[in-house]
Protein 1
Amino acid sequence: MPDQFATPEPDEAVKLALRRIEESTARGEGSDVEGLAFNEVVVNMGPQHPSTHGVLRLVVTLDGELVKDVIPVIGYLHRCKEKIAEKRTYFQYIPIVDRTEYVAGMNCEWGYVMTVEKLAGIRPTRRAEFIRVIMAELNRIASHQVAVGTFTADLAPLGTAMVFYMFRDREYILDLLEEVSGARMMFNYFRFGGLRYDLPDGWVEKCRDLMKRLPKLIDEYEALVQDNAIFLQRCVGKGVITQQDIVDYGISGPNARASGVARDLRRTRPYSVYPELDFEVSTQTHGDVFDRYQVRMQEMRESVKIVEQCLDMLPKGPVQLGFLRAPYVITPPPGECYTSQENPRGEYGTYIVSDGSRYPYRLKFRDPCFCNLQLFPKLLRGNKIADAVAISGSIDMVLGGIDR
Amino acid sequence: MGLEIGTNPMDMDAIAARLAADFAAELTDVRVQEPDTVVARCERAALKDVARRLKAHAEIGYETLNFVAGVDKVRHLESVYHVYSWKTNTYLELHVEVPKAKAEVDTVCDVWPAADWHEREAWDMVGIRYLGHPDLRRILLKDDFVGHPLRKDYVDSAENHPHA
Amino acid sequence: MTDMVPDRFKMRYPKLEHFQEPNVITTTADFIFSWARSHSVFPFTYGLACCAIEMLSSGFARFDVARYGMEVFRPTPRQCDLMIVAGTVNEKMAPVLKRLYDQMSEPKWVIGMGACAISGGPFYDGYNVVNGVDKIVPVDVYIPGCPPRPEALFQGLLELQIKIQQHKFVAETPKPAAQNPKPAAVTPAPVAGEEA
């Protein structure tokens, strides 16, 4: 048989899973079936899998359908972002930050730009602050549409109509963002001190029009699945994140708010013009899969409210600081800075160490999905393998952020 | 609704003074970074003890770990711990200097369980070994990768990068 | 509008409505099989990164890939003929990519979607990034963009349809060699032989 078809050697993660089975068998928890040493089977899910939302590999130890242990293996999308940051100037790195959490590009850019502005002591213009909030909230709605859409698409493979409705409406939002920045997904729109372009003529009216239509569209999505008995049975009571987990693992975002912890960085660590805006922090109480879905739907409605307020309060003025109009070189003074903000997935932070040169000395992303994924083995233990798909969809992972 | 945020709001200078007083021997260079972060340096040997006491502190319990970053500052390595206090809604950034010759530091996994994967990443990228870590192996790079890429002296090699 | 479509996109089939009564149409087996194959391609869901989201968007309501007969995205390589590599391939993923490519049955085609799959993209100088998926598998169509719009993906799919229509069913079409003339030590480029 040619070499390329030979069974590959088990790698570290699979060896670890096999070692754990041996240890538990040695402890006396082996099989109760005649002739079998142990009941468990080690199954590989991914890295190419329709339901793992990207190149995540799960080495699952199964006892029949029951999940005994999960070892997530990441790094299949590690694109050396943190090393590349050391070879690009601060300005050249802005498009690359977009690609960290690629469904929420505006939010990622804002996190990076905010940190560099704080290091360099630049304050953005007031009009730019309001437009930044509008873009971030529009991207939050689009990101939740992808998250919840693909989550329901996994429960029944593309069988629910919800994902089609959500992606259709996501196109309306992407149209708006494309008019402003020129791109549908990788916007490259934020600049230090402001934004690249001002809003084009007529954009505010189009945005207002869409914001009037969106709440009814969100009602439509909810009507599609919320009363479905199978959806409820698969989601209610599964994958409960407790408040102790949130403290231990640093879970943030909708995953934490679904368990009753009202921590929203737009309120607890306010930045930009959020203190002037009126919105509610969406929380639920049980912390299961269904509550996480509900928090995301509620957040979409709150984002609509925020965008409408910003459109009403939008001041006139420049969106760029005058002297920083053309591509430029920025050299923040030596120092370190960490800022974080509320990404659709949680606390997205950027830690930059600057040595006074044009290139960052060290750039580290505090990614919410990386922290949320640590909880995964604990959430899946004791559930059936089919629940693994529902739970992983509800955690909302984007591998671009986990692997960077 | 057990977990509350900001039940004990304190002024930043008061927090810095409190930490400097309670940890006078172990923490040095305690300063405030606006708006809500205290930055301090910690002795490598005292890290585990400081971590436990920080978490259990009655007024400013730093209960959640945000991230652990490894930084290569050419003459030495640094392990940066960023922790969050629910009671005061503030952050603390701890810098621990690690010599390059013997790049080891105690793990804080038993204090903050979130440190598990963050320390694995710091080991993977910068090469700081965390003593006592339950499972210190590479997390982002392939298992047989040689070297630690985020070190300043890392050179791209054909064995790590055959498809350059 | 039809005169704006380039000639090479128009396949030369007879217009069936020209026949007044049931008739006999003669053509070659190559034509029939390549016509059927090009209009019912089963793509492989190999979305790795950001381009995968644009690939997903192209499958949904606004940009409907079902118009080209390609909406059947199968997650298993055994049932696919087209692998759309959408996203950055890195050294950890390269052996997986190669194994999945090998598991697809002939005839199979590969589209490199996005700058990362063509040449490493914005991450070209990463220590872990493979500079182009054609160092591992032979690529038939390259779609530039970062990410390419769904319309760009469709142009690539249409170009692929033309390429499929040139595939000979009766006589073996020589497989294109991988672009890297020196096969990498770890994952050699596939060579079509009796085992293929």
Protein 2
Amino acid sequence: MSAPTEVGPPPAPAPGKPRRPAVGVLRWTLARHLLLVVVGLVVMFIVTAALPEFRDFQVMEIGYFVCAVAGLTVLTGMNGQLSLGHGALMLIGAYVVALLQVHAPSTPMYVQLVAAVLVTAAFGAVLGAGAARLRGPYLAGATLALAVGLPSIPTHYVSSLGGETGLNTSSIVTVPGWLGASFTQDHYLAWIGSVAAIATLLMLGNLRRSGVGRHFRAIRDDEVAARLSGLNVARTQVLAFVVSAGCAGLAGGLTVLATNSASPGGFDLTLSVGLLTAVILGGLGSLAGAVVGSVAIVALPSLSETLVRLTSLSASRGASVELGIYGLVLIAVMLVAPGGLAGVVRRLRATVARP
Amino acid sequence: MLAVHELTTNYGAVCALDGVSIEVPVGQITAVLGANGAGKTSLLRTISGLVRARSGRVLLDGDDVTHVRPEDLARRGVAHVPEGRGVVAELTVEENLRLGGLFRKDRTDAARALREMYELFPPLAERRSRSAHTLSGGERQMLAIGRALVARPRVLLLDEPSLGLAPKITAQIMSLLRDLVAGQQLAVLLVEQNARSALSIADQGVVLGLGKVITTRAAADLASDVALRHAYLGF
Amino acid sequence: MSKFIDITLTGFSAGMVYSAVALALVLIWRATRVVNFAQGGMAMITTYIAVTVIDRGYGYWWAFAAALLSGLVLGAVLERVIVRRVESAPPLNAVVVTLGLLVLLTAVGGLIWGNSSRPSVPTPFSLAGYTFGKTTVGFGRFDTFLVLAVLAVMVLLVALFRFTGLGLAMRASAYSQEVARLVGVRVGRMLTLGWALAAIAGSLAGILVAPRVPLSPNFMDGPNIIGFTAAVVGSLDSPPGAVVGGVGIGLALSYVSGYLGADFALPATLGILIVVLMIRPEGLFSRAQARVV
């Protein structure tokens, strides 16, 4: 009889390792994370300089996907709550930025993004409060309903929210002068996306190592035990939703910067499915996995385009190819390697460690 | 007859059974005794196939059935009444009994066996359409044994039938078992924590300790060996 | 007043379809403790198969049989090949796998039959309402067929589960796999059979919805969500609850559509789902206390 396949982030360090004093841990973790940030920025410089210009948009895409996927993987992987509605949360962030641009165009970009984060996080608090009692399939079903239902709301408000065609905005992103005259806007957007991603990863990484992160894991592993040890389970779960919703809101806001529009069609169920696929592929709870998964999701349309060309399918069927790949990835990963790529890496490391 | 040779089972790194060998003759009750964790339940679960044996053999009338799946072994005449009764609480008494005879090809005999169980266990007859979770502990034990017997098994594996039962009920169940074996071609392997009542009806006793067989002797011998009783059997 | 009767009858008819979807979900839940998010996708595929049968020139009844039969096969195959592997895993794995199946089936439908919507399935029963003198009600011959078909399937399923040995074996497998195995039940086969039977109910829903809507790979998404809501409202453990939940929601949505406007139907469904999940997540018909799923 085989044991159930466990899904989750890396186990705690082996017992017997000497415990560092709390402050020491913090300093060490922060230092390590800041180092990663510097590395990330360097990578950003190099990659955006090396890649041809038409890739700038994709780098931006990867950037905002990382924000959303990382937030979702923390919620699902660390806290054990599966949400299928994060596409809808991105929609909220997007509409906040779009509305600000339409009605208050002089607001600086950063303020608009912060607003998107806050509004979506507030919505996440409501969602989390409601979802606190739900488990497993029930939570999945409720968030699935959200993913399907929320995008339909703007379609009823044509004058204020732009109806089905959505809102169009004029670009508010101006490249700062000190970057030089030849620095294109697309390039700048790629940087913005990357910086946002790095900042999000830094925040989530610190969160994970902190006491709050331990609370998340405790609840995921054994809710009853966590409750008995005094953890306020409901509050922690709401917090998890708030954090991940904020990340999704940021991602949604960034999409408006990239595309100058916000419409229901851009945040449909396929998006939520795509986010989930990225999380599963990368590995639940793994931030590195979130990055890998995001790259995969952004690369997917080109992959499916190639497939469509190779098999000479019509354009409408091409959309099905993309969807089909999502489905196959979800099923295959769950059956073969439920821990995603992060899980595979973990297992490889363990086999190498044991001679 | 049921025979077990050098049976070894592990749960991960823990060795539950270590080279256990037992013979369970027809028409006799063989009691398996020992402290908690000695491996008694693991023995039954390995025999019936719920747990996979690491090594060793289980032989049913000479046929090697070591790795036969539980459902197939049940169809070959081995009935296992697991720890905690194994009664399906959501089904009625009648449905639980019918379960025992579901796979039997001889439907007439299956129906006859069902009627016999009602004669054997009058309380079950009174509650035949009641849901099983409304039964008392003793009645559930009767139901579990009844379900096992409806299949007209060759071998009966019983795991701690006296668990949670009052002494009077335990005595009833035990004497019932004694009568059953006397009347049918049945081999009974009885795992019991309550060694005293088990030995009162058993023909032979096997004492397990930490997964190994400590000793195998006639029940009367075991009952009179005071030192052994104190060391392993708790009385 | 006649509008009320109209709306009630229409709601009842729609409700029966939702009951079929809900019943499929409940049966699979009880048998394998999995919520089959792929249900809508399965029904879509079997309905498209039925449409293909009609396109090839065969009559409606052949197509009807094809839908149910392919449902049976599809349910059995999916359980045996894919879902079996996550039945004993943490619930999250099963949720992701059935979602993946939903997405995959939708994609396959689009690949084989195209993503553009095509006209509905023709049926031998008139979709027009019955006329009594000068008034026409919103309930016609097709609706009668629909109600009778769903009732027939339900009655057959109930009879199977309650009165046959096979049904007893299936119920035992659902309640206690270990005990079932110990009495000789081949539990794996029972699980597969459970999925197969549930898929029949789901396919029935698909072919009954089809005549009234344009077909596309997503045409069962709405009924799927409504059916899921009905199953949750009634309680995932209770087949009668599924039926009551389905009819109840069908009526509720009909009233909302009729008196407030069709646009409000989907939000109303979501509202009901959310309210029920907040107040009584285990469903109205649940006998046990709220399970931690």
Protein 3
Amino acid sequence: MARDPALYLELLEDQRFVRTAINTLLYVGFGVNVMMFAALLLSGFFVRRQWWVRALLAIFLLCWALPAVPAFISFHWMLIGEQGLLDSLLRELFGIDGPIWFNDSWLALASNIVAHIWKWLPFWTLVFIAGRLAIPQEIYEAAAIDGAVGVRRFLHVVFPLLANIYVVCTLLATLWTVGDYTTVFLVSMGAPARTSEVLATLGMHYAFDAAQPELGVAAVMSALPVLVPLALILMRRLHAGAVEL
Amino acid sequence: MSHRRRRVLGEVAAWTLGLVLLVWALLPTYNMLLIALDEEGDTEYAGIIWPAEPTLDAFRVVLEGDYWYLQHFWLKFANSLLIALATMLITLVIGSLAAFALGRLKLMRGWLLGNFPVLTYAVPASFLVIPFYRIMRVYGLSDSLWAVIAADVTFATPYAILILQQYAKLIPREFDEAAQIDGATPWQIYRHLYLPLTAPALAAVGTFALLFAWNEYVYQYLLLTSERKMTVAVAIAQFFDADEAPWNYMMATAIVYALPPVAIFFALRRWMVAGLTLGGVRT
């Protein structure tokens, strides 16, 4: 569908496409990296054995179990301007006038990123918890004797052991986040004036609102030169991990 | 002394982090309840943080399908449920069979094939929705729930295979060999050895596939066109098409829609952590 090279020239001439490409880069770059690093740190918190940490984990995982459509619509209403819940809370509790989130394209993009992280952070945290629990207790004990506790233990014991899982998960999350349509479609809805779109939503817009399916496919296909190498690296990583461990 | 102080500080930090996480996790859910319990459904314009006169009326409307967009609510709910359950079952069957074949049977050059499924993710699901839309029309599957199920299975299976394969590496190969010596066929090894021993991973993967289908929106929106084939996710988003939609009905629908996955998730939670081990650490 997207064979014609002229389509790509047409895309490059469209200001919206250029802005969307930048948005997608920021969305994925910040979204994935902040999410994965936070998940890694939080997994350390959630392996604590107190009862309240376990209870909190159950609540925290609720974000993942909550379906995307309701969750993101809730985000949309929460940020809908001065009367949304977030700005109302800021006003009532701290006396601050919150910004109108969807009037500024960067704030709208940031809202999308936060919503995406909110939804998927618990999933990756769970994966890292599983990874941490698979580390034998003896390794911690041996490391403690050698003086590796706290931050040092994280840097020199936990992180090297989880490095491969971390890379694999980051690659997977990157591929999934590039294709994320629902978040942007429902949270910022591209506002203001389609400046907070990502490739997935812009492609749909071209295809169905503007009735140019070829252009829509070309828009999303323009990400392939990045995505295919990532998928290949992921394959190699999985294979390397299998041999190494 | 300083050791004790550090301990107390650590505890305080942990509780603070816990509190922040609690607010972070519950704020959007609270917002949903706030709007759903409102009488007029215009909470989001009233700037309140507490429902003034909470009422469950919106839930009654949803459950009785008493509003234009909510007609046939239970039919739509059944459609969503069918898609999710079928996606889960088919993903489990295909995923476990593929993972078994790739990981346990000694295929020639099996490793080449082994990590091949993740290549599916090189082109994200939402990028393929336009081609899918065309293909399903050619197959005569337009406006069929099976079209959505096929799409969901396509994108849930690679991850399922990946997790199952990684998890199965924890099962010693000697088990297979012992069973083989006893005369077990590959099929018997799969049924009596592989499936029971990978149960935690199957639970994790099943939950993943179910939530994947329940989260999915764009395929349901494009592939299902008639009123009777529509799903709840599409019905919820449809509220945005109206100018003066009652948002309390929308949020009540959203909450009802969120209940099944939450329930299933909590039922299977114990198994999840054990099942999601991505290779783990072996020494």
